[in-house]
Known about the structure:
By secondary structure, the protein is α+β, with helices and mostly antiparallel strands. Helix content is 29%, strand content 32%.
Amino acid sequence: xxxxxxKDVGYQIGVSxxxxxxxxxxxxxxxxxxxxxxxxxxxxxxEPRKAAPYETAAxxxxxxxxxxxxxxxxxxxxxRDWDHDTTVQVAVSASGAGRTVLRFHQEWLADADERARQRxxxxxxxxxxxxxxxxDTSPV
Length: 140
């Protein structure tokens, strides 16, 4: 099998970073309108209930599969120009006092090329979220 290919969920990609904020701080930002716009897309509204639909201004659509407060959001994700759904999971977990691991994971990618494109996408998203989180949690 190729890098990132699995027997069960096709191709997948994940990116993560440990950040110097509590799970509560990271979670609060991720589910805020500003945070959702960074990782899910402008115009998306994230409802914390199973089967809640969303659509971004760019036409990406999907629905919430699970929403576990201060833990993870799992949803389907399909850009306007794709012919298939993928699954995206955003998760947070404690990593010592005042530190959190933030993870973005996507599965059901079509092939190695799509995986490579999404790897760059989620790296850019992670950087944008970290920038937003730094601004959101900085002292006034």
